[in-house]
């Protein structure tokens, strides 16, 4: 897999000869989009109507250069992100941990309640996410955690940070950065 086959960026600082240099790979592909529905609460008790976004995703990983003089393989990172975006595409994203948006599932249907309101979805249309509110920031955190665990064995333990940004409206990014 050639790094040059993908138009992502990599730090151009000369490599291992400089012990103070730090390195990061960033991948922000056109394919990193998913269309999904959600609703959040804000200001205490205002609950949005269900609506959709064409979400965009970008990711970066920081760490030392390996024996190939790169941080990680762009293609492996890309593929790990695509698994996440494809799993969310054309789904309703629901919060698992909200105090008032209550999500229950039986064998076929996912029922959501907020006070007197109720929504029902086929199970296969719903993604229940381990978040309090399905904000772009929290979706970014979940994608970062999933990509980290998906790639940990391949990328190893020497990386330092992973950062995921989720764009929910053409330039409104929620970003989560966490230790590797
Ligand atoms: Zn929204």
From TrEMBL:
Extent of Low complexity compositional bias: 1-16
UniProt-listed SUPFAM superfamilies: Tetrahydrobiopterin biosynthesis enzymes-like
Pfam families: PTPS
Cofactor: Zn(2+)
Pathway: Purine metabolism; 7-cyano-7-deazaguanine biosynthesis
Segments of this protein annotated with the region Disordered: 1-20
InterPro entries given in the database record: 6-PTP_synth/QueD, 6-PTP_synth/QueD_sf
Reactions that this protein is recorded to catalyse: 7,8-dihydroneopterin 3'-triphosphate + H2O = 6-carboxy-5,6,7,8-tetrahydropterin + triphosphate + acetaldehyde + 2 H(+)
Gene3D superfamilies, alphabetized: 6-pyruvoyl tetrahydropterin synthase/QueD (3.30.479.10)
Keywords, alphabetical: Lyase, Metal-binding, Zinc
Documented EC number(s): 4.1.2.50
Enzyme class name: lyase
Family: Belongs to the PTPS family. QueD subfamily.
Identification of the protein by name: 6-carboxy-5,6,7,8-tetrahydropterin synthase
Organism, scientific name: Neorhodopirellula lusitana
């Amino acid at each position: 897999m050639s790094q040059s086959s993908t138009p992502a960026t990599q730090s151009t600082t000369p490599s291992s000869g400089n012990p103070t240099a730090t390195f990061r790979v960033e991948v922000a592909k056109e394919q990193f989009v998913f269309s999904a529905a959600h609703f959040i609460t804000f200001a205490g008790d205002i609950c949005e109507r269900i609506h959709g976004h064409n979400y965009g995703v970008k990711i970066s990983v920081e760490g030392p250069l390996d024996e190939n003089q790169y941080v990680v393989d762009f293609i492996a990172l890309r593929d790990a992100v695509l698994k996440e975006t494809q799993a969310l595409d054309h789904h309703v994203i629901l919060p698992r941990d909200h105090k008032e948006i209550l999500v229950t599932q039986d064998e076929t249907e996912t029922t959501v309640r907020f006070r007197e309101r109720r929504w029902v979805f086929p199970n296969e249309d719903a993604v229940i996410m381990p978040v309090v509110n399905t904000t772009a920031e929290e979706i970014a955190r979940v994608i970062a955690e999933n990509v980290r665990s998906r790639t940990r064995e391949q990328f190893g333990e020497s990386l330092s940070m992973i950062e995921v940004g989720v764009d929910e409206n053409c330039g409104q990014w929620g970003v989560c950065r966490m230790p590797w």
